Amino acid sequence: MKRTAVLWLFFLLSARILSGPAAIPDSVRLALDKAPTDSLRIGILLNYSLAEASARPSAADYIVQISVEELQKRKLEKFLPSFYQSLAAYFEKAGDYFRAIDLLGQADEAAMKLNDLPARSSILNKTGNMYLFLGDFTKALENHFKSLTIKEDLKDEKGIAASLSNIGNIYFRLDSFVQAHNYYMRSLQLEEKIRNEKGIASCYINLGAVFDKLALYDSALLYLRKSIEINSRFDNKADIASSYINIANIYDKLNYPSDSIIRYFKKAEDLYSGIGLKSGLAEAWLSAGVYYNATFEFKKAIEYLQKALDAGRELRSAEIVRRSAKELSDAYAHIRDFEKAYTYYKLYKQAEDRISNDENIKKLTQLEMQHTFDRKQREQEFLRQQERRKQMIRTGFILIALLFVTTLALVIYRSYRIKQKDNILLAQQKEEIAAQRDLVMQQRDQIQRQKEEITASIHYASRIQQAILPPEDIRQQILPEHFILFKPRDIVSGDFYWMTRRNGKTVITAADCTGHGVPGAFMSMLGVSFLNEIVNKEHILHADQILNRLREQVIRSMHQTGREGESKDGMDISLLVVDDASRMLEFAGAYNPCYIVRNGDITELKADRMPIGIYSEKGNTPFSCQTFQLQAGDGIYLSSDGYEDQFGGPEGKKLKAKSFKDILLKIHPLPAGEQLAYLDAFFEEWKNGYDQVDDVLVIGIKVT
Question: Would the pTM of this model clear 0.85, i.e. be above it?
Answer without folding.
Answer: no
